[in-house]
Amino acid sequence: MSLVEVVRDVLRTALGAYRDQPATVRLLHRQLARLDEPLRVAIAGKVKAGKSTLLNALVGEAVAPTDAGECTKVVTWYRDGPSPRIMLYPKEGAPLPLPVVRRDGALDIGLGGVPAEHVDRLLVDWPTRSLRHTTLIDTPGVASVNADTSARTTRFLEPDDDTPTEADAVVYLMRHLHTADAEFLESFRDQGVARATSVTTVAVLSRADEIGGGRVDAMFSARSIATRYRSEPALRGLCQNVVAVAGLLAHTGRTLRQNEFAALTELAGRPRDELESALLSADRFQRVSAHPELLGRFGLFGVRLATSLIRQGTRAPNELADELVARSGLRDLQRVLATQFGERRDVLKARSALLALERVTRADDRGLGRHVDRILAGAHEFAELRLLGALRSGAVPLPKPLVADAERLLGDAGAAPTARLGLPPDARGPQLRQAALLALRQWHGHAENPVFGRRATDACRVLVRTCEGLVTES
After folding, report:
1. Which residue from 21, 92, 175, 470 lies 20 to 30 Å from 104 (Cα-Cα)?
2. Which domain holds residue 264?
3. Whole-prediction pTM value?
4. Which helix (H) or strand (E) holds 138?
5. Is the domain of 48 the same as that of 148?
C-alpha cells in the first residue's frame, strides 16, 4: 500500500474516532480532500522582493497585483478552475464573491470594502494549465513596516499548535542573503519527526537582473552568486536549492505584446551610443525615450537585453519571448520545482496531512497518536526527508565525498531512479539494476565501517534501504 493510501486510511479512522468534535471532523475532511488536490506552494519573502511578479511569471498571466494595493496585504491563493472567480473569506462570516476585473490585461483585485485585518484569505480560480498540478499562494511581505501585514505571513507559514500549516512547500524570495532572510527561514524550521524544512523550501535570488547595475551579463553574475549561496552554511540547512531569477523579465517574456516588440525594434534601430546613453538610468530613459512605458514592463536590463537580441537577428515576437524567458532563469526554477517538489508531491501532501493529525492527537489522543507516530517515524519516505535535511544542515558526520552521493540517492536532484543513481534519463533495465546493486554494495560497506559513529551508521542504513528499493524497482 502506498504512503498516500496509508495516510488516507488513518484519516478515515480518525473521522470515526472524533465524530463528536465537529471542528476536528471538518479539519480531517479538509486533509482527506487535500491528498487529491494539487500541491500547495507558498511564495514568501520580504516586501518588494518580487513575489507577485514571480507568481505571474510562473502562471504566465498577470493574475497577481504587483502594486502596493490591498490584495498584497492578505494571503491570496491561486488555483486552476473552470472559470475565473474570486472569493474573499473573512475571519468571521460567510465567503464574499468579488468582481473579476481586468485592467490593461492585468487582474485588478480589491477587498470589497472589507479591512485587510478582517480577511482570512482570497481565493482566485483561474483556468490555466500552469496551475493544474500546483496551487500557488502569494503571501504578504515579511519585515514590513506594518507589523500586522508581516504577521499574516508568519501565521500562515508558522501557525499555532492548534492549526496546521496549509502550505506543502515554500519558495522564499530574497534580493541577497540578508540576516533577516536567514532568521525568517530559521523561524519556521520544523522540529521533530518527518519535518525537514530545508527539503520543502527553495530560495530564489529574485530581481537577479539588478545585480551588476542591470548590465546585459547581469544574470551570469547572479547565477554565480546563487551557486555560492547553495554551499553557504547559513542557507544549506534552511533550503534545498538557490536559483537566480529575473522575475520581471520572465513575466514580460511570457506575456510579450506585439506593440512592445515593435517599440523595441524601433529602439534597436537607433544608434548604439544614443540608446546606451538613454539607458544609463531609469530617470534618463523616461525623459529621453519615445517609449518610456517599456521601463515598467522590462526594466533597464530587459530593454538592454531585448534590443541587443533584436540587433543580433531576432525577428519575431515569439522568438524574442522565448529568449527572454530562457535568459530570465525561470526555466531553471521550473525544473527545480518539478524535480524537488513535483516528483515528491505525494510524500509532501502525506506529510502535511500527518502533521495536521499529529496536532489533533497531541491535544486529544483517542488511541491514534501512537499509530501516527509509527507512520511518521517508520515510513521510509519520511526517513529520507529527515536524512536529506540533516545532511544539508551538516548534522550527520559523513565524509564530504559521501555526502554528495547520499544527497543524490535521497532525491536531491530528482526522485526518479535515474536521477537518484546519477544515470541518463533514458537509462533502462540492466543498466539501472547494475547501478542500484553497485550503490547497495557500497552503502552496505559504509554501514559496516567501524570508524563511523552511530549517527553516520544510521544514515548509511537509511541509504541501504533506499538502494534496496531501487534494486526492487529496477
Report:
1. 175
2. 250-328
3. 0.87
4. strand 134-138
5. yes
